[in-house]
Specification:
single chain, mainly alpha, 4 domains, two-stranded antiparallel ribbon, 28 helices
Length: 826
């Protein structure tokens, strides 16, 4: 390593200039005012000096050219370095400040800057400007301190805590924990706790170091510290398990949940049994001092430690996916203990200083400081109670009965609860369904798809016969069936599972995901048609005339059953209906658009009903053929179950189209009477909005999207009188009411709602409430039209006030029924 001082280049330059042999050239070193020699590039002086030393400096003079300076020497000398600034005085006075306010104002006046204009230097980037805005802004600068404020929190974690204070701190941690479950970051929730911060920073290498009082043995006078430490250990370990579970499932960061831990280790290197031992030791300690602190306080502390132990046990058992009755025991225990905790909340003494936003300054985060999220005790109680109830309920998905009970009822009704289950429960449901690509921990994807095909289109069919897989002869018809069916399963499996996964998301994401899924199902349907054509030759299927002549259709010629494409088409129609229905639930459509969207929903439901009728026709024909061949008990059960499903889904389609027809006519009448008025939209037209609403369905070939002209004529119905519209709405509501009465009488098995029958019945009753409310609105309108005539328009002339908002209380989110109120003429 060289020890040459920094002044050597200047000294060498000076010597070389003195030795120059060129008499016409003088090399002068400019010295700054502070007597500091000017530093020039070393290679430049070396080259100049070299010419004089070796006698080449005379060559230019002999040619009459003289010395040609380098380009660097033509540049102005660099400015001198700033003077040294010595705090507290000295020989130098330091940097002199000048007031440039007047110069800036003069410059602004000369350029005539208007209000709002900005002069920006080209090298002043956006990053620098944002950084400048953060400086000394309390909302953006985490280091900005108020007068008298310290940088770090001043709370002393070693101070003696009373039992009431420990209860108060734990109860506040409950509120912060629930806020984290709801999607707020750890930096605004649990990591604002001073005790947890001291426990995790620096990162503990052994469990004994995971303490907010480091390098100190626990003595007799620190009982409450032991209790609080054990609880904090349990909370942090729960957070790690839940965070890890959510990260491995499908969720949306910042929208559903924030998994960022800000480079803090959540005790991931320690085993669960170690944490449980600490919790059990703390419970024994509380029990031993119950005579000192009192039975009431000891029970309150014990309940809180017991809840944390049960929570860890529930998380540990959730990976088993075995017997739901045994898995539900910790959740049931938490449900009971939580009630006791809520009743003992008055024993706690709040310690707000144990939580500080100053801890955010030490977290690995680019976010500005944010306040602590504070949920009330009542809100926390309700959310935890719902969490434990959903934890018990979600385990019922492990009781597999049939594919339709799993998808169309359990997953859908579970996710449609209000409020929706927390993201941890939703990811737990995903884990039960998809972990290791084994459905519910015991079923293959093929098993579930074959069950669904058998239930919907292929009951007791040779296409699903397991014996086909045992044939290895390539020219055998069974080998061909097995090959074609496996090709179809591989093509449809991902699309089929994506429906389950989509319904495990939040409601907005469900609709957005389904809008993409229907295009995939369009492709599945086209592929299924090709496979159907190959299979119908292998099984030598006989085409039939559909619809039958006796049904008044006259038939359109012989046609094949096309079971696989019919199955795909049925799911595509269901997805399209769900997209429209979720649009009502999420309030996507404006009030003046509701009538048109309900008309389109009725068209989709009619298409589904026609498709189910076609499937039923071919299923009955196959069943008649099986009866002639003396079917087995299993085959008869398969046909009975398929027949019941087709009846139930046909009934559901009929109810949907009748209710949609009724609301479409009702909103058409309200618009015609001036009770629903479209707001001014200067930047759009009705046709443009129609294109936007129907964009998800534009690429679908069947059913074909109606044109704007057809849609407009069908929703306005100008050729029909207003009274007739209301009469049609009344008739449709009557039909829907009869269908709902039949639906309510279905059993758990017949309704394909095994494991979720209560929620399914609640949905049916909600639709019944919507039908009854809509019937009341229709009757009020009909009576008022009879009294005042159809020529009256507007609320004042008709004496009516209509409000359109969310679904009626006790009703169904998919049926937006307006509320109507009769007002005085004055």
């Amino acid at each position: 390593m060289s020890n040459t001082s920094d002044s050597e280049p200047e000294n060498l330059t000076r010597k070389l200039n003195d030795l120059s042999l060129n008499p016409t050239t003088t090399s002068t070193t400019t010295t700054p005012p502070n007597n500091t020699p000017q530093q020039q590039p070393y290679h430049h002086h070396h080259a100049a000096a070299g010419g004089g030393l070796f006698g080449f400096g005379d060559f230019g003079a002999q040619q009459g050219q003289g010395y040609q300076p380098y380009e660097e020497e033509l540049l102005p000398p660099p400015p001198p370095p700033p003077p040294d600034f010595i705090m507290g005085g000295g020989d130098q006075q330091g940097i002199v400040a000048f007031d440039v306010t007047s110069k800036f104002r003069a410059a602004a006046g000369v350029t005539a800057l208007e209000l709002g204009e900005l002069v920006k230097d080209g090298f002043f980037s956006l990053f620098e400007s944002v950084g400048a805005l953060e400086i000394m802004d309390p909302k953006m600068d985490s280091g900005c301190l108020a007068p008298g404020e310290s940088l770090d929190e001043d709370y002393d974690v070693t101070r003696v805590l009373s039992p009431g204070e420990v209860i108060g701190i734990i109860d506040q941690m409950f509120c912060l924990e629930m806020a984290w479950y709801q999607g707020y970051p750890l930096s605004q929730t649990l990591l604002t706790n001073v005790y947890i911060d001291r426990m995790l920073e620096p990162e503990p290498m052994v469990l004994g170091d995971a303490d907010f009082i480091r390098r100190k043995a626990v003595g007799e006078g620190e009982t409450m510290h032991v209790v609080l430490r054990a609880y904090c250990l349990g909370v942090v370990k729960c957070c790690w398990y839940i965070n890890d579970r959510i990260k491995f499932e499908h969720y949306y960061e910042e929208e559903d949940f924030v998994t960022n831990t800000y480079h803090r280790s959540l005790l991931d290197s320690f085993e669960l049994n170690e944490i449980n031992e600490e919790l059990m030791a703390a419970r024994r300690l509380v029990h031993s001092v119950r005579h000192t602190i009192g039975d009431q306080l000891a029970q309150a502390l014990g309940f809180r430690l017991e809840l944390r132990t049960a929570f860890l046990r529930a998380i540990e058992l959730s990976v088993l996916r075995s017997n739901p009755d045994s898995l539900s025991l910790p959740w049931t225990q938490m449900e009971a203990v939580w009630e006791m905790i809520y009743k003992s909340r008055h024993l706690g003494t709040p310690v707000p200083e144990a939580f500080s936003t100053k801890i955010q300054r030490r977290l690995a985060s680019t976010m500005p400081p944010r306040p602590i999220v504070k949920l009330s005790t009542e809100e926390t109680y309700k959310h935890f109670k719902k969490l434990f109830a959903d934890g018990i309920d979600v385990l019922n998905v492990l009781n597999y009965h049939d594919s339709q009970s799993l998808l169309q009822n359990f997953v859908m009704t579970f996710q449609s609860q209000k409020p929706q289950p927390l993201v941890y429960i939703r990811t737990l449901l995903q884990s039960f369904l998809f972990k290791d690509m084994i459905i519910l921990g015991k079923l293959s994807i093929r098993h579930v798809i074959d069950d669904d095909l058998s239930l919907v289109v292929l009951p007791a069919s040779k296409l699903l016969d397991p014996a086909n897989d045992l044939v290895e002869a390539p020219h055998h018809w069974r080998f061909a069936l097995a090959h074609q069916m496996e090709t179809f399963r591989q093509r449809a499996a991902q699309s089929y599972l994506d429906i389950f996964r989509a319904f495990c998301q939040n409601r907005c994401r469900i609709r957005r995901t389904l809008c993409h899924s229907i295009q995939d199902w369009e492709t599945v349907q086209l592929d299924a048609e090709q496979i159907d054509q190959l299979l119908q030759h292998q099984i030598e299927e006989t085409p039939l005339v559909y619809p039958p002549t006796g049904d008044g259709g006259g038939g359109v010629g012989p046609t094949y059953s096309l079971p696989l494409s019919s199955w795909a088409y049925l799911y595509k129609l269901r997805l399209m209906e769900w997209i429209v229905q979720l649009g009502f639930e999420l309030e996507i459509y404006a009030p003046d658009e509701l009538g048109g969207m309900y008309w389109y929903l009725s068209e989709l439901a009619r298409s589904r009903a026609r498709l189910v009728d076609r499937i039923s026709f071919f299923t009955k024909h196959r069943e008649a053929g099986q009866q002639a061949a003396s079917p087995s008990a299993g085959q008869e059960a398969a046909f009975n179950q398929s027949r019941q499903y087709l009846y139930q889904t046909s009934l559901d389609a009929a109810i949907t189209w009748e209710m949609a027809d009724a609301l479409s006519n009702l909103y058409a009448a309200l618009g015609r009477l001036g009770l629903v008025v479209a707001p001014p939209r200067p930047y759009s037209t009705d046709e443009m909005r129609y294109d936007v609403r129907m964009k998800p369905f534009a690429a679908i070939g069947m059913p074909e999207l109606p044109s704007w002209e057809v849609y407009k004529a069908a929703t306005d119905r100008r050729q029909v009188e207003t009274g007739r519209l209301l009469d049609d709405a009344s008739l449709s509501l009557e039909q829907a009411s009869r269908g709902l009465e039949v639906m309510e009488r279905l059993s758990e098995k017949d309704s394909f709602s095994v494991g979720c029958f209560e929620r399914w019945v609640g949905g049916v009753k909600g639709q019944t409430v919507a039908v009854d409310r809509a019937a009341v609105v229709v009757e009020v309108l009909k009576r008022r039209l009879e009294e005042r005539g159809e020529d009256k328009k507007g609320g004042k002339e008709l004496g009516l006030k209509v409000e359109i908002g969310k679904a009626v209380e006790g009703g169904h989110e998919w049926w937006v029924v307006p509320t109507i109120e009769e007002i005085d003429e004055a």
